[in-house]
Amino acid sequence: MTKKIEAIIREETLDAVKSALRDIGIVGMNVIEVRGHGRQGGIELSWRGTSYQMDLIPKYQVNIILSDHNVEKAVQAIMQAARTGAQGDGVIFVYPVDDVIRIRTGERGLLHSVIQMTLICAAKGCHVVRGNRVSSPIFCR
Questions:
Q1: Residues whose CB falls within 8 Å of the CB of residue 93, separated by 6 or more in sequence, listed in order
Q2: What is the CA angle 73-5-90, rounded to 5?
Q3: DSSP H helical segments within 1-141, as ranges?
Q4: pLDDT tens, 30-67?
Q5: What pLDDT shows up at residue 110?
Q6: Strands, E, within the chain: which ranges?
Q7: What is the pLDDT of residues 97-121, one digit of tens each?
Q8: 54: which strand partners?
Q9: Which pTM was predicted?
Q10: Mean pLDDT along residues 70-75
Q11: What is the pLDDT of residues 24-35, one digit of tens each?
């Protein structure tokens, strides 16, 4: 099964999250600038002696599509890289992906995923295949 990870993280942790994901072989992702708040309800800022309330805090949303067996590794990598210990560190959602449709060709199905990667599990481990090029190993069960 294929899953989507959607992580809402602090702006200042994006580079650490990308690096942590790269370290476990995940290089494809979408990053979207978002604004919001959770339990903290916003923050109070001051500028030139004037205080004001910012209720929608800038964050990043990181989206990743990956195989079921890589989900826990990715979640752990994101949590370790994004955790500061302070309120507002973010949240991670994991969703099932039922289908993928390539807009240009109309191809459907998870085998024709948006990132067009095929995992080959062999004695050497899993590798990502793009066309006829085999890249570095990635994690596999």
A1: 5, 6, 7
A2: 90
A3: 14-23, 71-82
A4: 999 999 877 777 677 777 888 877 788 899 999 999 98
A5: 63
A6: 2-10, 30-36, 43-47, 50-54, 57-67, 90-96, 118-122, 125-130, 133-138
A7: 998 888 999 988 764 444 434 333 3
A8: 43
A9: 0.71
A10: 96
A11: 999 889 999 999
Q: Can you say whether the dihedral through the CA atoms of 76, 80, 82, 83 is positive or negative? A: positive
Side chain identity, residue 106: G
Answer left, alpha or beta for residue 106, where phi above 0 means left and psi between -120 and 50 means alpha: left
Cβ density class 13-49: b for 16+ within 10 Å, e for less: bbebbbebbeeebbeebeeeeeeeeeeeeeeeeeeee
| Burial of residue 74, with CB atoms counted within 10 A of its CB: 0-12 exposed, 13-18 middle, 19 or more buried | buried
